[in-house]
Design goal:
The chain has about 250 residues and is mainly beta. The chain folds into 2 domains: about 5-35; about 60-250, Jelly Rolls. The protein is about 10% helix and about 30% strand. The protein has a 6-stranded antiparallel sheet, with no helix packed on it. A hairpin with a 5-residue loop joins strand 10 and strand 11 (about 190-195). The longest helix is centred in the N-terminal third of the chain and has 28 residues, at about 5-30.
Length: about 250
């Protein structure tokens, strides 16, 4: 077949398709309905008012008891005390972990370091929120209290420095709003996508979609270890009377 006949054949065979495609493109550019997406319809929830949790949240502390928690790591009855709508460790009480396990989540938690300042650096109002029992968002009295930057309040402990220091004064209630994406693994257990953490401290963005390098470790470099797709939330007892309240979580 000659080149001219081949060109004529292509025009005859594909011309209508090209015209239809061009018409569809023009419609998409001129008709606003062409870019409307009606499905799926987002489900309706009731947002929290004031300190109330959203209607689809799991309330992990209701202000009166620790029925959603056990002692970490033993899984026994917690020894933390509950008073005035908050809970805090007592000497030798050990950490707490949730009875329920979570993967991807949105976590809200409020905390307060002692009003009477005692100690300095890491010895002042120290605790921690551990996602999946191993990825720590640092709790610390970082109001006019110098320590290593990747260990101050709202740091991803020894992995990521907060963008700003949004700490309130000792004795004042503070909040973390954390969005967490668990690491992904292949069939062999190798990490294909790291854990991702976003943190708002007192309503201020301080960790912006940060990829973790692995578990939180005190000495050496972080590393990933095999664990379940869902694991408990853990609160650290670091020997300081740090109080917590209004704890709720949404599974994503």
């Amino acid at each position: 077949m000659s080149d001219s006949r081949r060109s004529s054949f292509i025009r005859l065979a594909f011309g209508p398709l090209l015209v239809a495609s061009t018409a569809a493109t023009l419609q998409a550019q001129t008709d606003p309905r062409a870019t409307e997406v009606w499905e799926p319809v987002p489900r309706v929830i009731t947002p929290g008012i004031g300190t109330a949790a959203p209607s689809d949240a799991i309330v992990l502390f209701n202000g009166t008891d620790l029925s959603q928690w056990v002692r970490a790591p033993e899984g026994t009855t917690p020894r933390w005390k509950v008073e005035d709508g908050a809970f805090m460790p007592v000497r030798g009480s050990g950490g707490l972990r949730t009875k329920q396990s979570f993967g991807d989540c949105q976590l809200h938690i409020e905390w307060r370091t002692p009003a009477v300042v005692s100690g300095e650096g890491q010895g002042r109002g120290n605790s921690g929120v551990f996602l999946m029992e191993r990825y720590e968002v640092q709790v610390l009295d970082s109001y006019d209290n110098r320590t290593y930057s990747n260990g101050q309040a709202a740091s991803l402990y020894k992995q990521a420095i907060p963008l700003v220091n949004a700490s309130r004064k000792p004795g004042e209630w503070q909040s973390f709003d954390i969005v967490f994406r668990a690491p992904r693994r292949d069939a062999a257990g190798n990490v294909t996508s790291p854990a991702i953490v976003t943190v708002f401290h007192n309503g201020v963005l301080v960790q912006d979609h940060v990829a973790l390098k692995g578990n939180t470790v005190y000495t050496g470099q972080p590393f990933y270890e095999k664990h379940g797709d869902k694991e408990p939330i853990m609160l650290q007892d670091h020997g300081n009377p740090v109080a917590f309240r209004n704890v709720w979580i949404r599974e994503l």
